[in-house]
């Protein structure tokens, strides 16, 4: 999770919403990502999406069923869909997202029983550090 926080710090340095993610396989990071929505002018450039793409490219396959994703903020509907589609095995996330979170906060796409894949979810990992980065960003944005 520490590596995901470092990715979130990259986003903060680039004036992006500070969310970072890493994909791990066999205790080794194989994909990294941080929010790049503004930089790439792409609404789908979330940290999770970038990390999943990097991991898939690294392995040369779309199935990531032997991988885990660590992300600093609870994934949204789009990113949760990507986790399910890519068959990520375990999700660890930091802060809950009451407005857009799709892993238990605003929605819970993981436990609907309507998909052919399920994953284990562990929430609240380094949540205070994740929240702090987000608060820092939005405090700065509100001043502008």
Describe the fold and architecture:
The structure is a single chain. The protein is α/β, with parallel strands linked by helices and 144 residues long. 39% of the residues lie in helices and 20% in strands. It has five helices and five strands, in the order H-E-E-H-H-E-H-E-E-H. The chain has a five-stranded mixed beta sheet.
Q: Strands of the biggest beta sheet: in what spatial order?
A: 2-1-3-4-5
Counting DSSP E segments of at least 2 residues, the number of strands comes to 5
Oligomer: single chain
Provide the gyration radius in Å.
Answer: 14 Å
Structural class given helices, strands, pairing? alpha/beta
- Strand % is 15-25%
N/C terminus separation:
30 Å
Indicate the mean pLDDT.
96
Helix content: 25-40%
Taken in chain order, the helices and strands follow as HEEHHEHEEH
Looking at the structure, what is the overall shape? globular
Please name the defining characteristics of this protein.
single chain, 5 helices, 144 residues, alpha/beta, 5 strands, 5-stranded mixed sheet
Write the layout of secondary structure elements.
Layout: H1 2-13, E1 20-25, E2 28-34, H2 37-40, H3 47-59, E3 68-73, H4 77-86, E4 90-95, E5 120-123, H5 127-143
Parallel strand pairs: 3-4, 4-5
Antiparallel strand pairs: 1-2, 1-3
Helix pairs in contact: 1-5
């Amino acid at each position: 999770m520490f590596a995901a926080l470092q990715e979130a710090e990259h986003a903060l340095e680039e004036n992006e919403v500070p969310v970072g993610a890493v994909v791990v396989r066999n205790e080794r990071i194989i994909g990294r990502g941080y929010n790049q929505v503004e930089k790439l002018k792409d609404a789908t450039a979330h940290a999770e999406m970038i990390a999943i793409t990097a991991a898939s490219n690294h392995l040369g396959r779309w199935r990531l069923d032997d991988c885990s994703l660590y992300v600093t903020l609870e994934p949204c509907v789009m990113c949760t869909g990507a986790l399910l589609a890519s068959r990520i095995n375990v999700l660890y996330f930091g802060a809950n997202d009451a407005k857009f979170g799709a892993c238990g906060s605003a929605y819970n796409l993981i436990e609907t029983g309507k998909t052919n894949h399920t994953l284990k979810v562990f929430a609240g990992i380094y949540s205070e550090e994740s929240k702090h980065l987000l608060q820092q960003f939005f405090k700065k944005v509100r001043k502008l």
